[in-house]
Structure formats: C-alpha cells, structure tokens
Amino acid sequence: MQYLLAIYEDERAYSGGPESEAWQNILNAHNQIAGEMAQAGILRGGAGLEPTHTATTVRTRGGSQQLHDGPYTEVREQLGGFYLIDVPSLDAAIAWARRIPLHGDGAVEVRPTLPDTE
What we know:
Largest sheet: 4 strands, antiparallel
Structural class: alpha+beta
CATH superfamily: Dimeric alpha+beta barrel
Distance between the termini: 15 Å
CATH class: Alpha Beta
Number of domains: 1
CATH topology: Alpha-Beta Plaits
Number of strands: 6
Number of helices: 2
Radius of gyration: 16 Å
Strand order of the largest sheet: 2-5-1-6
C-alpha cells in the first residue's frame, strides 16, 4: 500500500537559505533517508517544497474561485516536503515516518493513498 509522508516544520528554521548550516544539515539527512528508502525498494517519489511565500492557493467557495498569494491559512508549521512510499502496512509506514529528519519541532503526517482504480 502507498503512503504519503508529509513533513511539516516551521520554515523560519531555514531562514538562512540554502547556504545555512541548518539547511545543509537537513538536506544531508534527507539525502541519507531517501537513499535508504530507495535501497529498500519502497520509495515511489518525493520532493522538498519552496517556501510558502512562493505558493498560490486556488480557493473555491460557492462555485466561484479566488486566487490567494501564499498558503491560505496561518499555521505554525508549513508543509515543507513529502515522500511517497509503498510498504505492506501502516506500522511499516509509521516506522519510516519516525526516521524522517526534522530540524527542531515538527510533524510527519502518515496518510494512505486511495487505492488504484485501474
């Protein structure tokens, strides 16, 4: 079964940008875990995301659509990236989620994907 491992952190922890020590440390840690997932044969995809100020949200209400710069809601943690893995059980997905590196506080949401309808 496929699971999305969605990574939420406070993006201010990386305010120094790609040259900062925090950024380089977390990038190295993610390269390591992604390599381990690939070697285990479970990695189906994944990516880090640009900061929230680069986002555009399309919101539909009452049949009409509006565009908003950035994320639509104010939250303490932002979606910073994800992995898509294929493992036999929720317990296996949680075990991998526990290994996802975070810089300080944060969360990894584990969510199964819908079954393939083909």
